[in-house]
Write a structure and sequence with these properties.
By secondary structure, the chain is an alpha/beta fold. Helix content is 32%, strand content 21%. α18 runs antiparallel to α19 (676-702) and α19 (676-702) crosses α20 (717-729). The chain is globular and about 90 Å long. The protein binds zinc ion (2 copies).
């Protein structure tokens, strides 16, 4: 029993420290108001990791109500990691105060950018409010954060708002602890803050009319660039096919889906099915793009797929614009494969007719986040705006005083930093083979290490000798660790779910490609793993990738590769192959036979490509990564339970999973004119059965009870759902990433886990020696 009062004290007192994202989010004024409500005295101040609070009461209390209210009513932007508290001596204070914080060298968190809150929205729509229709309205509970901050601590002069001098009215709100704009660093109003302007893109000439005019131009079919939080969107009327077609031409995108922004949920429901979890995600203050099952097709938006990506407005500017419009395309403004543009000077005028811009600079670019909802929880396709830079706590056993930088892979890269028990993972940075993205990668390392005052002592990269990230690590001059791609994948969910170091799991790591320990292209790996090492228990049987990189762009090559694997040179008649010229088929078969430019791979993505092509769904050449698998998933019919045969070969690990029977049966089904939707469903079930069969082997031979599902293939909602439920039926515990994407965006997190474990091991070994 804890005593909150000792004999010599007049009152009761408690001291607590709240860890987490509690600075720059209105936490101290919240505590101030809360304490006043309870009539408690005391103080609150920012300290390194969080906020320290001292409260005292003259009346008898254990402060449980206060703690409860603190947890339940905390400001929406805050994230409490942990609260520690202990009874202390009462100081007989007369009031409750917010103490000035000293600048320290510690880890200060910063909130992600957050959508406009209800209170600000109400004010913005109130004609008698001084911020009526003001597109930069914000408060301590909402608005820009990560994309405008240059340095920490988070103060106005350290953000891109530094050049705007607060007017008297704003200053009064900013300095009043009872005002909801107390210390809201981006506070602004029409008198003192930023403004929008509308520009004719090619002439660079400003025109009148602002947001209203911009909306009418969109209605007319024009393409506009609209400056948001982390960069520009390219915007047009989603229901005007001519405008959509023109936007596709400008962006050099024939089939890659466009995201839509809708005025409200009712508009979305006209075009898509929505369940409660999806509604909640759409409405959350982080405002991601959510992929939703189509109810009605909108021409040109997401061809050949069964889902469309929707988001709701998130900046005041979006709300004002969507006040005049129902549904717009809102796609990142970038040239093919380059990072999202954040300044006019980056060539935005070439992509649009008009630019709706403003003069609040963006410091850090960040794309919209994209997710699907699976079994009520998010499945991230891209984690960026709204989520970055939320920190991730590591398992206690892995904590270290050393700072680590992890560089990720190459495609869909992110970087992660480790300091004082937490990992910060960057936004999605794209494919580093593009020069612009590589610059973005360097820009992000610089920014995040400065922002969080991280001085890396160890750098971790992939094993691939030719990755830009590997070379960057080699040049850094720091001690350098390298981790196999699929192993790093498996470690990411272990870290997220704070799995302790002794625990061994079966990691099912399915994706397109990662450099293997044997130098071959790994891609469907079943690894018995803990933080220190892995054993390759099984993998898909190697097949050639005829033409190397071309094989991942032209799915017919993979179809051919699998056919040769099954039938050698005596190919059966396959309808889908009639689309390919006989010459091309002959030359690719020769490549395979003579092992010319046909590296071996156990890729899961390429198996999907092959099946997608065989059933006639995949294009001859894909435009974007995973296009063929996505079409195959879209086609899969619900409610089918049948699957195909496969075999597991070998008497010792690594066992090889062969799809010879599967391919034969698919062809038989095609012969009997079974529809692709049925074949696709059976194929998905087959992969789930493969996973279960290897998991059971891992249980029998190694006592494994936990299975990790990770890798880009698990962006496939259907496969993830089936595999997870089958495994759970067999009493396995199933782990997957919830706050991060299972694709290569999570490699850097796994690399941090490996680095931390290595440091810990190194220390143990040293202790043993001395
Ligand atoms: Zn607000
Ligand atoms: Zn003002």
């Amino acid at each position: 029993m804890i005593k909150y009062k000792t004999k010599d004290q007049k009152g009761y007192a408690i001291r607590m420290v709240v860890f987490g994202v509690v600075q720059g989010v209105g936490f101290r004024p919240f505590i101030f108001r809360l304490a006043n409500k309870f009539r408690y005295k005391g103080w609150v101040k920012n300290i390194g990791f969080g906020v320290e609070i001292h409260v005292e009461s003259e009346e008898k209390t254990d402060f449980k109500d206060f703690l409860k209210a603190l947890r339940e009513k905390k400001p929406p932007l805050s994230q409490i990691e942990e609260i520690i508290h202990k009874p202390v001596s009462s100081q007989n204070l007369k009031d409750f105060t917010i103490k000035k914080s000293k600048q320290g060298k510690s880890f200060v968190f910063i909130s992600p950018d957050i959508s406009i809150c209800e209170n600000c929205h109400k004010e913005m729509m109130n004609p008698s409010d001084r911020r009526f229709h003001y597109p930069f309205i914000n408060c301590t509970n909402c608005g820009p954060r990560y994309t405008i901050v240059k340095f920490l601590p988070y103060d106005r002069i350290q953000t891109t708002m530094e050049s705007f001098k607060m007017c008297e009215d704003c200053n009064r709100e900013y300095t009043n602890p009872l005002d909801r704009r107390y210390h809201a660093q981006p506070i602004a109003c029409p008198v003192c803050g930023p403004h929008v302007s509308l520009v004719v893109s090619r002439k660079g000439k400003k025109i009148k009319g602002g947001i209203r005019k911009a909306a009418s131009l969109i209605k007319e079919g024009k393409i506009l660039a609209v400056k948001g939080l982390g960069g520009f969107h390219l915007v047009c009327n989603a229901l005007n096919y001519e405008a959509v077609r023109r936007l596709r031409k400008t962006k050099e995108r024939k089939t890659k889906p466009f995201a839509l922004m809708a005025r409200n949920l009712e508009t979305i429901e006209k075009y898509a099915f929505l369940n409660p979890a999806e509604k909640k995600m759409l409405l959350s203050a982080r405002r991601p793009i959510v992929l939703l099952k189509k109810k009605r097709e909108i021409k040109g938006i997401a061809p050949f797929l069964d889902e469309t990506g929707f988001m709701l407005p998130y900046t005041p500017l979006h709300y004002l614009l969507l006040g005049h419009l129902d549904l717009i395309v809102a796609t990142s403004s970038n040239k093919k494969d380059a990072p999202i543009m954040k300044d006019e000077e980056e060539g935005i005028e070439e992509l649009c007719d008009y630019i709706l811009t403003h003069n609040r600079p963006i410091h850090m670019r960040a794309d919209d986040s994209v997710l699907r909802v699976v079994d009520g929880e998010p499945l991230f396709l891209r984690r960026a705006r709204g989520y970055v830079p939320y920190p991730q706590r590591v398992p206690r056993e892995l904590e270290s005083p050393h700072h680590i930088l992890a560089l990720g892979g190459e495609l869909k890269d992110t970087i992660s930093l480790y300091k004082n028990g937490y990992v910060i993972t960057s936004q999605f940075l794209g494919d580093l083979d593009e020069y612009q993205n590589y610059k973005y990668f360097e820009e992000t390392i610089r920014h995040l290490t400065e922002l969080f005052e991280v001085k890396p002592e160890i750098v971790v990269s992939d094993m691939h000798p030719d990755f830009h990230t590997t070379r960057y690590a080699q040049k850094s001059g720091l001690p350098h660790l390298q981790v196999q791609h699929h192993f790093a994948h498996v470690l990411a969910p272990l870290l997220e779910h704070k799995i302790p170091p002794q625990k061994k799991v079966l990691g099912v790591s399915l994706d397109g490609y990662g450099y293997g320990e044997d130098g071959l292209a790994w891609g469907a790996e079943f690894l018995l793993a803990d933080y220190s090492s892995f054993q390759r228990l099984a993998h898909f049987k190697y097949v050639p990738l005829p033409g190397g990189d071309l094989a991942s762009k032209q799915p017919w090559r993979m179809a051919l590769s699998y056919l040769v694997d099954v039938f050698n040179s005596k190919l059966p008649k396959v309808k889908a192959l009639e689309k390919v010229s006989k010459n091309k088929i002959r030359s690719v078969m020769r490549m395979i036979e003579h092992k010319i430019n046909s590296p071996l791979s156990s890729s899961c993505g390429r198996l999907f490509d092959a099946v997608s092509f065989l059933v006639g769904i995949s294009p001859l050449e894909i435009e974007f990564e995973a296009e063929a698998p996505m079409r195959l998933e879209s086609a899969a019919q619900k409610g089918i339970e049948e699957s195909y045969d496969f075999s597991v070969k070998g008497s010792l690990p690594p066992y090889q999973i062969s799809f010879t029977q599967t391919i034969k049966s698919v062809l038989k089904d095609l012969e009997q004119e079974i529809p692709p939707s049925f074949i696709s469903a059976k194929f998905h079930n087959t992969l789930a059965q493969v996973i279960v069969s290897i998991a059971e082997r891992a249980k029998k031979d190694h006592g494994i009870d936990t299975v990790v599902l990770v890798g880009g293939v698990f962006l496939n909602k259907k496969l993830l759902h089936i595999a997870k439920s089958l495994l759970e039926q067999k009493s396995f515990k199933v782990l997957r990433l919830i706050n991060y994407s299972p694709n290569d965006e999570s490699i850097s997190i796994g690399q941090i886990a490996y680095g931390l474990n290595k440091i810990k091991k190194g220390k143990e070994d040293k202790n043993k020696i001395t």
